[in-house]
Amino acid sequence: MKFNCFVLVAVIALFSFGGSQKCRTLRVRKELRSLSNNEWYVQPYWDSASDFVDVAGSSVLGKNRLGGNGRASDNCVTNGLQFRWINKYPDNKCLRRIFNDGDKIKPFFSPESITSDIQTSSNFADFSKRLEIGMHNILHNSIGGDMSEHHSAVDALFMLHHANVDRIWWKYQNYKWANMMDFNDSLEKKIIYFEVKIRDIMRVGQGGLCYMYEERRNSQSSNKRSSVDSNSNENSENSENSGENNRLSDDPSDISTILKTPEMSLATGVSRDILKKYFPHLYAGSANIHSIDLPNVISSRALEYAKNIKSANAGMNDSNQNVTTSPVNNSIPDTLVEISKLNTASPSKVGMGTPINQRPKMPYPARMPDDFL
C-alpha cells in the first residue's frame, strides 16, 4: 500500500490521551506527514488469508519481523519487533499473545472464501457483517492476548490486519460501480473526533485518502523464484515450527504451470452449480480483478501436484482442453477473469482430472467462540 499522505487513526488514538492531547496529536500527524511526503513510503498490509493453512508459520510472524507466540509463563512475546517493549497503555506490561492452538494457529478463512464474500454480498451491510465476524474477528481471536482485547492496537499486527481489511473493502467497492458509495447509514454523518463527513472518505485515491494498493509483484520483472525463499533464515525458522517447507513462488513459469491445469483453476476446478452459488461472477463471466482476492503466488506443493497431474494425463484425451487459456500477464486473477468469459461463451464440463478423493483437502476454519461474537 503506497501512500502520499495518510493519517493513521489507530496510532493517533493510542498517543492522544492525557493532558497534552492536542500536542501529541499534532506531533503524530507531523511525523506521519514527514514520512508520507516521500513517494516511496509504504504502509504494509498482511494478507493473512494467504497463510490460512499454517498461520503461525507465516514469515510475518517470524522472529525477525513481528514475532510469534507469547511464552507460557506470562504470555509475553519473546522475539520480533516488539520484544521487550513495555506498552504504557493499558497496564505498563509487555506485548502478550496467546495463539489459539498451543504454538500453532488453527486454520481460518482462505482467499477463496474472501473472494466468495466479495462476489455474493448483496450490499454493504451484508458484506460488512461477513467481513466483521469472519476474517476480521478470527485473526484477532486467533492471535489472542492483547490482540483479542479492546486495546488491540498496541500490537503492530493490528495495523497490518486493518490495512488488509481496508484493502478488501476497497476491492468490494471497485468490483462494481454500485458498491463504491454503498453504506448502511447516512453519508452526511461525520467521523467522531475528526469531524470529517463519511462521504468525503469513501474513495481511496481521492481527497485525503491519497494512497493506492499494490496487490501483487510484477512477475515479468524477474525470473527468480522469490516471495519466500526456501534458503532464507526466516523461512527456515518457520518451517521448523510447522514441520513443512512449502516455498512460495512468483516465477511466471511456475504460475503458468498452475494456470494451465484446469482442475487447479477456481473457474474450472469446481462444478458449475458450486461456481454459480459461491462465485456467481466467475460463473456469469462478469468477474474482474477486484472481485477476485487470490494471491499471485503459488506453493511448491501446488506446483508438484500440477506436474504430477500433467504427467499422469500425458497422452490422454482431455475433454477440458477447451476451457483452458493462455496466462494473461502471468497473473492468476487476470487469467481467471478470461477463463470465466470463455466458459460462459462455450459451456463445458468442469472438475475433471484426479478423482476428488485423491485431491488435497482444504482445512475448515476454526469456529469463533460465542463470547467473542
TrEMBL record:
Keyword Iron included in the entry's annotation = no
Where does the signal peptide begin and end? Answer: 1-20
Database matches in Pfam families: Tyrosinase
Residue spans of biased composition, Low complexity class: 220-246
Stretches the record annotates as Disordered? 220-255, 348-373
Record-annotated Tyrosinase copper-binding domain positions: 30-174
The UniProt record lists the keyword Membrane: no
Q: Which UniProt keywords apply?
A: Copper, Metal-binding, Signal
Q: Which InterPro entries match?
A: Di-copper_centre_dom_sf, Tyrosinase/Hemocyanin, Tyrosinase_Cu-bd
SUPFAM superfamilies reported in the protein's UniProt record: Di-copper centre-containing domain
The superkingdom of the source organism is Eukaryota
| Gene Ontology molecular function terms on file | metal ion binding; oxidoreductase activity
Name listed for the protein in its UniProt record: Tyrosinase
